[in-house]
Amino acid sequence: MVADIQDGDGPALSRAEAGPSPASPRREGRGPAGDRAPEREAEPKDPVERARAICLRLLTGTPRTRRQLADALSKREVPEEAAEEVLARFEDVGLIDDAAFADAWVESRHHSRGLARRALARELRTKGVDSTVIDEAVGRLDSGQEEETARALVARKLRSTRGLDREKRLRRLAGMLARKGYSEGLALRVVRRALEEEGEDPELLEEHFPGG
Question: Which intervals of the chain are annotated as region Disordered (predicted)?
Fold first, then answer.
């Protein structure tokens, strides 16, 4: 199983990634003769070298999409021409691979969080992955696998809903699946089957699952 990918909405820069900040002068009366605090090592002045250094820091330990890196470079005011040169080079050597990122994201988030194709596609869009790449990645999850995962999710949640009335159980279980991106039809079908297997009367369930 692919290791979980760090979840996040964008390439937020950590304090370490954000690079050096200008040294603040010591307050008068502190330190010898108004000495200034030593400055940190400066980033490369060449825009291309700056872009390369920023991207390498961001890629250390977690994959990033091209859009995430481009946004980070823009926030750091790296000139667009330098940013494009570095991003294209990183793609050429495989350091940026949105298709591989999407495949790993789908596998990891489906297995670790039980997310359905719709939710996975939504997450990948927020990371700037191209719609064609997204379709290919989520398309590797077939409907049978989605339903199997939905049943497992309901089975784990079922016990905690015992003692609630039938309609509340329905809302809670189906709502949990909806939040993970499962369609209403699939959610209702899976919940009804789980309740029937638990011993609920199918005729009574028909009031809440008409035609299910």
Answer: 1-49
CB 112 within 8 A of CB 178: no
The per-residue pLDDT for range 107-128, each reduced to its tens digit, is 999 999 999 999 999 999 999 9
Does the domain at 44-96 match CATH 1.10.10.10? Answer given as: yes
Where do the structural domains in the chain lie, given as residue ranges?
A: 44-96, 99-138, 143-205
pTM for the complete prediction? 0.72
Q: At 87, give phi and psi (nearest 5°).
A: -60, -40
